[in-house]
Amino acid sequence: MSTNFNFKNILLVLTLIITTLVYAQEPPLKLGVAGLTHGHVGWILGRGQQPDMNMVGIVEPNQELAIKLSKEFGFSMDIVFSTMDEMINMVNPDAVAAFGNIKDHLKVVKVCAPKGIHVMVEKPLATTYDDAKEIKRLADTHNIRVLTNYETSWYKTNVKAIDLYQQGEIGELRKVIIRDGHKGPKNIGVSSEFLEWLTDPNLNGGGAITDFGCYGANLMTWITKGKRPKSITAVTQQLQKENNPNVDDDATIILTYENEMAILEPSWNWPIGRKDMELYGTKGAIYSDNPTQLRVRLSKGYSDYTEETFLLGEREDPYNDPFAVFAAVINDTLQLEPYNVYSLENNMITMEILESAIKSAKSGKTILLN
């Protein structure tokens, strides 16, 4: 009798625990998608159902494009709407991810911020520094999170490179070289909808100088923990006039700081796609070659050095998925470090660097920041 009583009690306790856990789980956040023309939109369309955040609505006035992608990714056209207001009224999202042109980022935040809807945009934050300042004002006024997503945010090699530098592995930092880009949007075969605005200086802010220059500016702001450069000097070229008649497709940007210099080389003319970074210190160098390989060289005399190679995997959850990061930040289960790559404070400086670089290239002069 006593054994049976204890067994029933145990079953009852287990049932209560399981029930409590089930009901204690927060339902997935509801995500709206603003635009389908960005080539990165497949990251969310192909994500599938997850416990943290799920797509519930899409805004895309181009019905032909929406139908094509619905067949490719299997979402229902019932969740596709023509306007932001219509989508918000019908599905009441907690957050919105912007996958249209860069100029529309401000429009998305203008609609979402007063309603308390958090926003994540694809890089860069905006097309102009003025637009970026208005985005920040809206975010601060309405207390919403605005994140900017960069593919390089996911690279474990970049994280390890910065950790090694901050631990003093290569001494004091002196120079950073960051190269990003590919053969060019048309040459790699991006969609016509993507190409149309990517090569429009009004909708994209520029060509390669903005499309890939933002990566280096963003990483340098992270490395320096929010330092603004003292000066920005940039030179642009148009090497594929037939493909990019209205924008630059190659740029070199030089940033000077009190004790460091950064050389950013964004281009649509690299023969091989790349996103790599080199950190040079007083004792050695760190080479973040790609998402998985990192090398550390330490000086031994004039030209000799030791070299260690690290082969790394993906970042740990939630950093291996930008939407998981977005959900965790909204739910306050993840506190991102100051001036991290996603942060608004970082991307405000990134936008200031980009706009200054564009001014420098157009004027042929170095731009000095206060």
From TrEMBL:
Domain Gfo/Idh/MocA-like oxidoreductase N-terminal: 47-149
Listed InterPro entries: Gfo/Idh/MocA-like_OxRdtase_N, Gfo/Idh/MocA_Oxidoreductases, GFO_IDH_MocA-like_dom, NAD(P)-bd_dom_sf
SUPFAM superfamilies on file: Glyceraldehyde-3-phosphate dehydrogenase-like, C-terminal domain (SSF55347), NAD(P)-binding Rossmann-fold domains (SSF51735)
Domain of life: Bacteria
Domain GFO/IDH/MocA-like oxidoreductase: 161-286
Name of the protein described by the UniProt record: Predicted dehydrogenase
